[in-house]
Design a protein that fits this description.
47% of the residues lie in helices and 13% in strands. The chain is an alpha/beta fold. It has 3 domains: 72 residues, DNA polymerase, domain 1 (Orthogonal Bundle), CATH 1.10.150; 184 residues, Rossmann fold; 65 residues, Winged helix-like DNA-binding domain superfamily/Winged helix DNA-binding domain (Arc Repressor Mutant, subunit A, Orthogonal Bundle). The strands form 2 sheets. Strands 1-2-6-5-4-3-7-8-9 form a 9-stranded mixed β-sheet, sandwiched between helices. Strand 5, helix 10 and strand 6 form a beta-alpha-beta unit. Helix 1 packs across helix 6, helix 8 packs parallel to helix 9 and helix 17 packs across helix 19. The radius of gyration is 23 Å and the shape is elongated. About 5% of the residues have low confidence.
């Protein structure tokens, strides 16, 4: 049994004892176990009388800690604590880092990452943009971070995975809790090809207060946060605000001005967020480390130039002519092209390989923007 991990779990269980106070207590008492064993009156000089009284009024729950540890081991998970050398360094720098992180999957926190967030009520355009940006970031070797919510988050995770990259889902519940339920398969795939991360323990249910709080981790783990589609009151704007507080880059994708679906993104751009039309806009802003990658990133090619490429066959040109910058389902394409679905899929694959077409979730296709 890992004594230090149990002590960290037990300490994090006490009320009002977050990462910042854990660090203060350990600095004063020398270790997490010594902090737990110190009398309540000694805590007062570190965290104040009120917090000390409320925290120490609760018994240290070693049984709960042991149960959590055993279940985490059974699931093949990992516990990262603030004193671990491989605790994510970017997260350690924020004002309120979690004392512990529960991780299911293989998370490499040394790799550069970018967050993609946005509304749950996403349009097809928004989902296509999130999918495309995530796929291109993944191809450039960056991890894509999001919150596994419906809409933009889901499209971002899927884009990174379909491009053969890695993605990190930061949850507002326990890492083993699937929310929304419709993302059960996505949750499993992220565990297998990336990682699911939470500051909340195993089995912890989601509620209205956990999601805004987890947003600081999405931005905190990332070099920058890209808001793809967000109305004026979107939770994605909370993530952007955390990113600014953490001195991280903020990006926003412009969109349709009517209806208010993109009002949050447009406000961010007015306030100084980097306007994003393609992945190179993101990589350029992240500094010299990515300057060369930005030059190599797939650009948003003009459709007419792509259609005129001589290597396209007559069938490829005919299918390409049916596509626009709005996703079109494979069934609609088959009806319009008069091609058998198997033949149509082969043509679409060839178009993808030459960079003329992008596939987005739901067997839908659009021109490379």
């Amino acid at each position: 049994m890992a004594r230090d991990e149990l002590a960290w779990l037990a300490l994090s269980r006490l009320p009002e004892v977050g990462g910042a106070r854990c660090r203060q207590l350990i600095a004063r008492f020398g270790s997490v176990r010594a902090a737990l064993e110190a009398p309540a009156r000694d805590w007062e000089e570190v965290v104040g009388a009120g917090v000390a009284r409320r925290a120490r009024a609760v018994s240290v729950d070693w049984q709960w800690a042991e149960k959590q540890w055993r279940e985490l081991q059974r699931l093949g998970g990992r516990l990262f604590t603030l004193e671990d050398e491989d605790y994510p360094e970017l997260l350690r720098q924020i004002s309120s880092p979690p004392a512990v992180l529960f991780v299911l999957g293989e998370a490499d926190f040394t790799q550069p990452a970018v967050a993609l967030v946005g509304t749950r009520q996403a349009s097809e355009y928004g989902q296509a943009m999130a999918w495309h940006l995530a796929a291109e970031l993944a191809r450039q070797g960056l991890w894509v971070i999001s919150g596994m919510a419906s809409g933009i988050d889901t499209a971002a995770h899927q884009g990174a995975l379909e491009a053969g990259g890695r993605t990190l889902a930061v949850l507002g519940c326990g890492p083993d809790v699937i929310y929304p339920r419709a993302n059960a398969q996505l949750h499993q795939r992220i565990r297998e090809e990336g990682a699911v991360v939470a500051e909340y323990p195993l089995g912890y249910p989601p509620d209205a207060g956990t999601f805004p709080r987890r947003n600081r981790l999405i931005s905190g783990l990332s070099l920058g946060t890209v808001v793809v589609e967000a109305p004026a009151q979107s939770g994605a704007l909370i993530t952007a605000a955390f990113a600014l507080d953490q001195n991280r880059e903020v990006f926003a994708v412009p969109g349709e001005v009517r209806g208010g679906r993109n009002a949050g993104c447009h406000r961010l751009i007015k306030e100084g967020a980097k306007l994003v039309e393609g992945v190179a806009d993101i990589l350029d802003e992240l500094g010299p480390r990515f300057a060369q990658r930005a030059q190599l990133a797939l650009e948003f090619s003009p459709p007419a130039a792509t259609a005129a490429q001589p290597e396209l066959s007559p069938a490829e040109k005919a299918v390409f002519a049916l596509l626009t910058d709005e996703p079109l389902h494979i069934d609609a394409l088959a009806a319009q092209s008069k091609l058998p679905v198997a033949e149509l899929l082969r043509v679409l694959l060839d178009l993808e390989l030459v960079g003329a077409v992008v596939q987005v979730p739901g067997k839908r296709f659009l021109r490379q923007a």
